[in-house]
Amino acid sequence: MQTECSAGAYEFPASCGRRVVARFDGGRMSSDGGFIVVKQADDILGLSRRFAACFRDKRHPGFVEYRVEDLVRQRIMGLALGYEDLNDHDALRHDLIFGLASGRLSGGRANCAALAGKSTLNRLERSGQQADRYCRIIADHEALATLFVTLFLDQHEHAPARIVLDVDATDDRIHGHQEGRAFHGYYGHNCYLPLYVFCGDHLLSATLRTADRDPGKEALADIRRIVEQIRSRWPRVRILVRGDSGFARDSLMTWCEDNHVDFLFGLAGNTRLYDRIASLSAEVRDEAATTGRAARGFASFDWITKDSWTRRRRVVAKAEWRHGNRYHRFIVTTLPQGMSDPRHLYEQVY
């Protein structure tokens, strides 16, 4: 039995003095109007165009329906609008707003949609080092890595005097049996553990990693590459690398010291460090007990571990007592004593 469709209007009860009418003659519609705004920003930044330039297209020109730039823009815009899964694009390829913003309202061939489907986009994302039968678009991974730093540098008319590079790893939770899945004890679930480097709001690097690898040991390669690229354009800029205690590794700190890059990392506490600030801790504890409020004090001293560090470094300690409990924290830095007192360094810079 065929469905009977009505193109007429359906009247609902009035509300707030206004008629409420449902009509079914709107034709093909879209809820992704924000795409147009995002596209305007992309046109100004040139992100899709410059990102697409990092790929080599080995497809036969006579059989190409979707340019690399079209594929890249479709995927980026989908992510920007919350469509993370490639499966979504089997519907989005027919979306009028996506087609309008991409300049394609219909396919070039009778059996092609205006935009690419999930399988074509999947081959783009899984591009390897060399073309094969199923993947003919090859990513230049070195060019992709440098693109984000180039975009950051291009946003400045003049070199700043000082920049801060924030490095961190965070969980990207997974729920199925994806390859490379691993359980992470800190987060308490299976996840990936991508490594990010930011300068303010600017993303400089994003590296997808499995959760069974130590980000502190792998951050040096990204930091070295980013610093070298920044200094090639801004040779006099002062750089501070900042991160939590997972990055306080001797290899990274030594490289920073040898290359005139400052660092400020968290430092995991241990018995030796707690003993080093025992007198400060007692003073702060007595103050908190007397006032009935939280109290904190700060100290700065030179420090070296028993065997994991190759040289002495400045450590700043924060001793804090709240509600009868100890909350001591430590950071390690190259910033000298005269540049910043311990309280300012911990509370404002770190």
UniProtKB/TrEMBL annotation:
InterPro entries: Tnp_DDE_dom, Transpos_IS1380. It holds the Pfam family DDE_Tnp_1_4. Keywords: Plasmid. Residues 15-350 form the Transposase DDE domain. NCBIfam families: transpos_IS1380. This is Transposase DDE domain-containing protein.
